[in-house]
Amino acid sequence: MDAMKAISDGEKFFAEGKLDDAEASFRSVLEEDPSNAEALNNLGVLCQAKGKSSEARYFFEKTLCSDGNFLDALVNLATLAIGEDRWSEARRLIVKALSIDGTNHELFNHLALVCLEMKDTEGAAKALSQSLELHPHQEEARKTLQTLSSTGISTGERPKEQSLKILFVQEAPCIRNYKMATALRARGHSVTLAYTKAPLSKMYPGLSDDVYSACIKLKDYRHLWDISRHYDIIHCHNEPDTLTVAALACQRPVVHDTHDLISLRANGDLNLSFFEGIANRGASGRVYTTPYQMEEARRLYGIEGPSLVMYNYVSRGDLPDEYLPKLSDRDGGIHIVYEGGIGGNSHRNFIDLFTTLADHGVHIHIYPTAFSQQLGGLFAGYGTIHYYEPLSPKEIMRAMTQYDFGIIPFNLEKGNKRFLDSTIANKLFEYLAAGLPVLTSPLATYIDYFETNPVGLIFNTAEEIIGNISRLTEMREKIDFARQIFTYENEIHRLERFYRQILHAHIETPFPRQTYEAESSEISYKSLGRAGKKIIATADLKDMTKDALLKLHHWILSNGWRGYDPYDIPSYILGRKLQGVITEVEIQEIQECIRRDPEGGRKALGIEPQVNAKAMGLFLSSYADLSRYCATKEFHKPIEECLTWLLENPSKNIEGLGWGYPFDWESVVMIPKGVPTSVNSYHIGDGFWKLHTSTDDGKWLSICLNIADFFTKSLNRDIISDNETCFSYTPLDFYHVHNANLSVSEFLIRLGKETASDDLVELGMKGLRFAFRDLQDQGFLTYWARGYEPSPQNIGQIDHYHSAAELRCLYRLMNALPDHTKLRTLFERYLSFYHQHFFHEGTVPKIHPARLYPINIHAAAEAAYILGETAVDYPASKDILMRFLPWLLNNFRNGDGSFGFEITNSKGKQDKNMFPFLRWGQAWAFRGLTTAYMSL
User: Fold this and answer.
1) Cα–Cα nearest to 560, from 634, 597, 632, 610
2) Were 400 and a residue from 150, 434, 726, 765 both cysteine, which residue would form a disulfide, CB within 3.0 to 4.6 Å?
3) How large is the C-alpha radius of gyration of the chain?
4) Under a CB-based contact definition with an 8 Å cutoff, are residues 178 and 204 in contact?
5) 3-class SS at 193?
6) Cβ distance 171 to 217 under 8 Å?
């Protein structure tokens, strides 16, 4: 058959409206060539024309399985995503399409539309500018760009959530208070100011108190307590911290916002440390200005619970409305700008630095907080020091655009370095918004910030600044400053989400003791008893675990490698939906039948047990561990069988080695069976890695390198910055999923260290730095990276198995990078969160920090895996493991040694589903128990 002719005929039929004939032509091509990308894409277009968007999506994704760079399929998928308001996915698809065809001005227009819907006005403006460069005669595009440039207002609608009534408390409002209130008001919330000394208009002439719904001068603490009941949440800004301590007696949850850790510059004043400690420990949630400051607070006061980092961002209304011509283009000189206080006898006494730079011919432009006649006279003697009258924030932002670099100096001999290490200046974000690389003194916060955001340099002396001018100039040309504009308006959703998290915890305290007693009455603790009773001796528990492992091993040998999976039923239903041959009533009947009889129902539907690649990888790594640990040949045969199957069944049409699932599955988009995933390939790669480290056979390392090829050449990568990257879940998606990205990053760093490949290590480090963003802000990771969720329903999504997987990657990375103190700090903080929030009474694994049921074997197995892996270094892991393992063995094992699926609870009555799913249950249980056993 002539495929080209059949496709041409089909397209002709389609144009004539003969859709059935068109479909027949395209399908005839697929009968002989199932991977023909053009026919698959055309079938997707045809389904879209019939209004069958699910089927259209299926064919477009099949097209990309065949040809990952098929432009039409990328654009068609993006169009579907736009029509379904999946803006994040649409943006990733359009960016991918533009990487293939960067001359298509319509694609840039679509990107601008998506950016507007995502409230990314800067991204929209950039896309429109690029579109107009390619095709200048677009009047609507030009008008939209002019509107964005003049107002900076997004046309996207605010998520329809209930507005909050927030009480801001501070002696007198500062600029941070004002900026937050402005951004919250723009989101529809009501912010009232309660103050004791002065309102905003008295502190900052020219700023209006109208940003607040009301301004209340507090008479005394009783006044604060009385009015608190009228608000949803109390947000106290320090300093001082005494108002927060008073607010803890209010009737509403309190957020404590640490602008400065004043105890670090208290010169031994115990009262300041006392109130600061109570405010930090007693609040329902804490907000800090830097990650370093948050960690200092943790070290000082041992705080626990929700915390958030909100840098001192700029206000959208202060962004420069135009960028002035560079003075250096006119005179060939170097022009550095400084805004803020200067002089005195403390850390702001850096006049010598500026005069030294001036002596080297560098122009210094100073915009002080308050004008000093004395300094004005001093600087008048230097032709290259320019000392100005104070300007408003908006005027300063515009003026700064004409300079080359911004500077944030400190006199570390006169200042308190520990305190300064914990701070970050407003001017950092203002310089960046003005398009300026930044020079800073060597303080911890800036060092950390530049590590993940390469937008500036650290200096110690004036000579170092002079020596780095060319490097700074090159940096200025390379940095995409549109990505470095951080405003409160664009970040305020994080504070909103934080408020709601605190309100939820405050209103619905999970698992009151009497409720849990009723729910858990049928859970058997047997030899363990209640969680507080005596823990089984380590030796006895080791014997129990060994016995469970051997029984499960014999069950696996008896059962074979084929088994059922919780996802095979959704896959069956999805396939029938795509064919249009199933109703909602039939779906409910199938689900009820499967619930009653998991095996018989599947057989009645004709669903066969299958070999699952991830299961084979988990079995391989477990048997490799056991073979080395037990020094026995008993496990050699299953190792050989796993190896043979895996090497004979990798995914097709990809670069490198990768493995997928034996079923279609949906995760926002539909992923066809066989499409390789980063997570599957990571676990399989771990098995080959264990063989490499326990034998002298170089072929296992070679296979690991082939898996790395899949990660680096077949997966999609979102390059967040020069220093950050996020790896996709599969070659089809553009997801920002933390456990997938960390799996790839950890594997690449591990392999790069082994093979002395700096490229692999650096690529993995970029993925790790992407995870640092969320880790620093909240101390744990949600499933989707914040700000990249595909829909509002995915915001804040977190569960036991993915949190444990992320921790395992971070722990292994910590061991691979022993000198990376930041990584260790963040890992230990996340591990502490996991210990405290994912186990009821320190024993029963919770599916979610705020929810116990369903208690799932996958979560339990992951718990055994991460607790076992970290037990050697962290006594808290060992302590929980000693209580958890007996509970697991007594509650999830069948008489034949296999493990059941889950324990549910409905209206106080517990139900156990003990069906032995192979991949979900047995493979994961075997992996978790192996690691736990080896740690005892």
Assistant:
1) 610
2) 434
3) 30
4) yes
5) strand
6) no
Residue 314 β-bridge partners = 487
- Of 671, 647, 648, 644, which is closest to residue 660 (Cα–Cα)? 671
d(CA 760, CA 712): 9
**Residue 699: half-sphere exposure toward Cβ, Cα within 13 Å:** 2
In angstroms, the CA 305 to CA 548 distance is 36
Decide: 63 and 33 in contact? Cβ < 8 Å.
no
CA distance 925 to 788: 32
Q: What is the distance between the alpha carbons of residues 871 and 879, in angstroms, rounded to a whole number?
A: 8
* Cβ–Cβ under 8 Å, residues 130 and 106: no
Residue 433: name the closest of 328, 316, 340, 329 by CA: 316
**Length of the chain in residues, anyone?**
936
Residues whose CB is less than 8 angstroms from the CB of residue 477 and which lie 6 or more positions away in sequence, other chains included: none
Strand order in the sheet with 902-906: 855-856, 902-906, 909-913
In contact, 115 and 90? CB cutoff 8 Å: no
Position 512 pLDDT exceeds 70:
no
351-385 exposure pattern, b = at least 16 Cβ within 10 A, e = fewer: bebbbbbbeeebbbbbbbeeeeeebeeebeebebb
User: Model's pTM, two decimal places?
Assistant: 0.53
Rounded-to-integer distance, Cα 235 and Cα 285, Å? 9
Classify burial at 203, counting beta carbons within 10 Å of its beta carbon; exposed 0-12, middle 13-18, buried 19 or more: middle
The mean of the pLDDT values for the chain is: 86
**Which residues make beta-bridge pairs with 724?**
721
Quick one: pLDDT at residue 519?
Answer: 29
What does 733-786 look like in DSSP terms, one character per residue? ----BHHHHHHHHHHHHHHHHHHT-HHHHHHHHHHHHHHHHHHHHHSS--SBPT
- Predicted confidence at residue 387, as pLDDT, reads 95
pLDDT of residue 524: 32
- H/E element holding 420? helix 417-421
Residue with structure tokens 């795509």? 578
| Amino acid 670: pLDDT | 75
718/92 Cα distance (integer angstroms): 8
Buried b (16+ CB within 10 A) or exposed e, 879-894: ebbbbbbbbbbebbbe
Give the type of residue at 761.
V
State the sign of the Cα–Cα–Cα–Cα dihedral 557, 804, 690, 729: positive
**Does the pLDDT at position 516 exceed 60?**
no
CA angle 30/31/33 to nearest 5° reads: 55
Q: Do 380 and 355 form a contact (C-beta atoms < 8 A)?
A: no
Alpha-carbon gap, residue 763 to 785, rounded angstroms: 19
10 Å CB burial of residue 450 (0-12, 13-18, 19+) is: middle
Tokens 């950016």 locate to 115
Could you tell me the CA-to-CA distances from 786 to 187, 236, 315, 322, 775 in Å, in that order? Answer: 18, 25, 21, 31, 10
